[in-house]
Amino acid sequence: MEIFSQEWIALVITGLATLFLIGEVLVNMRGIFALLGIGFITVYFSVYLETNSLILMLVIYFLGIALIVIDGKVLNDGTLATIGAASMIAAVALPAPNFAAGAYAVLGVLLGTAGSLFFLKVFKRRDMWNKITLKDKLTSEAGYNSLNDEYKALLHQEAVTLNDLRPVGTIKVGNKDYSAVSNGQWIPRDTKVLITQVDGTKILVEPKNNP
Question: What is the DSSP letter of 72?
Fold first, then answer.
């Protein structure tokens, strides 16, 4: 068909293919987006490739998507997602008949990926992404609460100043060092102090011999 001789058509086809395939990964469209994406990417490869090469490039392209899914569902550190994106880009760039068409194809993948994020605002996202977000939130909160509990446990404990508090300095409680502040007093080094107040990670102390 004459339209496939136009270099810009590669951008349209790969863009729509990636838009729908990544969109299916992000939101639950019951396979509709997946079918549309598979259709578009199959058309792209079939125009420029023989059957054997077509299958190979399809495998590389979908392997890239699979790596993105695995990264998002299991690792969530971006490593496999980067490799997956590179696989998708290579898969559409290599079959292109010339550099311009290849550039359009790569641009289509990038625009399609970016555009698929819009689906998150329109359709219900898949449960796995909600679970990942919730897990990260809970992990963060758990770490914050753990730190808070550690500091709260210091209240009314004895400590020793490791340097002069003027009024800020460092104290040692057991085997751990903490930053502390006196109540406007200059407390010399090696003075025994009492932790009188803890506000978040702020520790207020006063000399132990105070009445």
Answer: I
Residue 44's Cα: distance from chain center in Å? 31
Q: Report the pLDDT value the prediction gives residue 31, as an integer from 0 to 100.
A: 84
Quick check: 144 and 136 in contact, CB under 8 A? no
Assign 183 to helix, strand or coil: coil
Residue written as token pair 């009445």 = 211
How far, CA to CA in Å, does 120 sit from each of 40, 76, 99?
A: 21, 18, 33
In angstroms, the CA 138 to CA 200 distance is 19
Quote the tokens at residue 39: 């259709």
pLDDT at residue 191 is higher than 80 = yes
Complete DSSP assignment for 179-208: EEEESS--B-TT-EEEEEEEETTEEEEEET
Residue 4 pLDDT: 67
Instruction: Tell me if the pTM is above 0.85.
Output: no
Work out the angle between the directed axes of helices 79-93 and 51-70 (0-180°, nearest 10).
160
Residue 141 reports pLDDT greater than 60: no
Q: Which of 159, 145, 161, 142 is nearest to 200 (CA)?
A: 145
